[in-house]
Amino acid sequence: MKVYSFLRGGIRYTDLTVPPRDSSTTAFLPGLSVIPLVQHIGSRANPVVAVGDRVSEGMLIGRGQGLGSANIHATVPGRVVRTVSWKMAEGITNDALVIRLEGGFDILGRRQEIFPWQGLSPFELQRIIAEYGIVEMEGSGRPVSDMFYALRSASDPVTLVARCIFDDPWLSADHVLLKERFAAVAEGARIAARAGRMGRIVFALSRGEKDMGSALMDSAAGAGVSVSLVYTGARYPQRNRRELELVLKRYAKNEGIELGTILALGPATLAAIHDAVKLKKPILDRYVAVGGSAIKEPRVMKVRIGTRIGEIFAECGGFIDKPKRIGSGSPLLGRTVVDLDEPVIKTSFAIFAFLSAQIGGYERSRCIGCGECRSVCPVGLDPETLYKFTGGSNARDGGPSRAAECHGCGCCEVVCPARLPLSTGIIRSALRGA
Ligand code: SF4
Ligand code: SF4
Question: Which ligand is nearest to the CA of 377?
């Protein structure tokens, strides 16, 4: 079995506080669900229900407004009891509808009707995927229908890459989802390939996932498209777009195939595409890795979108002691959570609480010139020097000119013994155009 890896830098990222990858448990249904109208990168969805209205499970409650915005659905049956707004750590204000659980479920516990999709045109599949508000659940939250739309003018062939790479231990929810729902992921890939008029599917898996690779290939057989499998190294950030493309180029050259334009989607997104098209079901829940040194019983849970983060921590036994850092996503790149009433959204693949700041943090010291940050940078940058210029005063000297090349993987920040917020500072500098 040949394994393809990017050549330079990267880290072996381990964290003993992540939940085990064996199986998932289902979280309690929340009595009150907080459903934000922004769960994606674009503008907020327009609410189509008001306070006092009854909603059913899976009902449309917010309509997406153009590119970057996605439809939002009620994840439990009940009544809209109020609207709330709160400021997130990034200073963005989010609005949400609060639904009190009432009445019977239309989907949960019911026999699910199967809708055949093989006879549907790419246009019809894209419409269903948009209608059910499917977004990229492992990353930006970009609507998948926008991704298909962007491909319409591609002149070269398009390849769907099912990105099942676990270079970050905080992707354990995706790992469990893939184990428990591999058939849905494989069929989701076939549906996505048809919707996006893609002639080839490549399953990209971390080394060591041989059984999963065979299961995915068996499930995707007979897709009417070419299906292949590539194993990648497990070094972080193998899953990043740049490092993934490097590896795929080498793979394509070795195999003598042309991949053309690549659309990479993760297992949660592919399973959601399957559910939307085959079961006519919006994203009602997602797999979430709940862990960190402050959590008594870390675990992977299936959580309804809209469940408040504080409730999930409580279901995991609560805190061992007062956490110093609470966040959503991977601790490497994730965002800080300032309010435990903040809900799980479509992109919340992990939530964590730590007793210490872990990466970066407040107990900083001076750079000791160890060079560790340079040795791990996959782009070949000098994070130490770039960071020195992020203060702004020396920006005119041309020092930070390579800051724009940083893709924010965070490797430099993880290894820095002085705990300097290197990648955070470099990205800010790049955004300022310094
Ligand atoms: S400088 Fe940027 S690309 Fe290089 S290791 Fe740091 S965050 Fe990653
Ligand atoms: S890793 Fe930190 S301490 Fe070492 S050279 Fe880079 S900035 Fe300095």
Answer: 1
Asked if 322 and 37 count as a contact pair (C-beta separation under 8 A), the reply is no
The residues facing 299 across adjacent strands are 290
* CATH number of the domain where residue 228 is located: 3.40.50.11540
Of 255, 279, 303, the residue at which a domain comes to its end is: 279
Q: Are residues 116 and 237 in the same domain?
A: yes
Number of structural domains the chain divides into: 2
Q: Which ligand sits closest to the CA of 11?
A: 1
Domain of 129, in residue numbers: 3-15+112-279
Q: Which ligand is nearest to the CA of 417?
A: 2
For residue 323, the number of C-alpha atoms closer than 13 Å in the C-beta half-sphere is 23
Rounded to 5 degrees, what angle do the CA atoms 406, 412, 416 make?
A: 150
Confirm whether 168 is domain-assigned: yes
Residue-by-residue pLDDT tens, the chain, 434 positions: 899 999 999 999 989 999 999 999 999 999 999 999 987 777 889 999 999 999 999 999 999 998 889 999 999 999 999 999 877 656 677 889 999 999 888 877 777 888 999 999 999 999 999 999 999 998 778 999 999 988 887 778 899 999 999 999 999 999 999 999 999 999 999 999 999 999 899 999 999 899 999 999 988 877 678 999 999 998 999 999 999 999 999 999 999 999 999 999 999 999 999 999 999 999 999 999 999 999 999 999 999 999 999 999 999 999 999 999 999 999 888 888 888 999 999 999 999 999 986 555 556 788 999 999 999 999 999 999 999 887 644 444 445 468 889 988 999 998 999 989 899 888 887 777 64
pTM across the whole model: 0.93
Q: Which of 346, 350, 411, 237 is nearest to 427 (CA)?
A: 411
Q: Whose CA is nearest to atom 4 of ligand 1?
A: 377
CA of 409 to the centre of ligand 1 (A): 5
Cβ proximity of 294 and 354 under 8 Å: yes
Q: How far away, in angstroms, is 171 Cα from ligand 2 center?
A: 27
In a domain, 237, yes or no: yes
Residues contacting ligand 2 via CB (< 6 Å) = 367-373, 384, 415-418, 420, 422
- Measure the CA dihedral 331/335/339/340, to 10°: -40
Residue with tokens 């809900």: 343
The token pair at 115 is 């809708």
Where among 259, 279, 299 does a domain terminate? 279
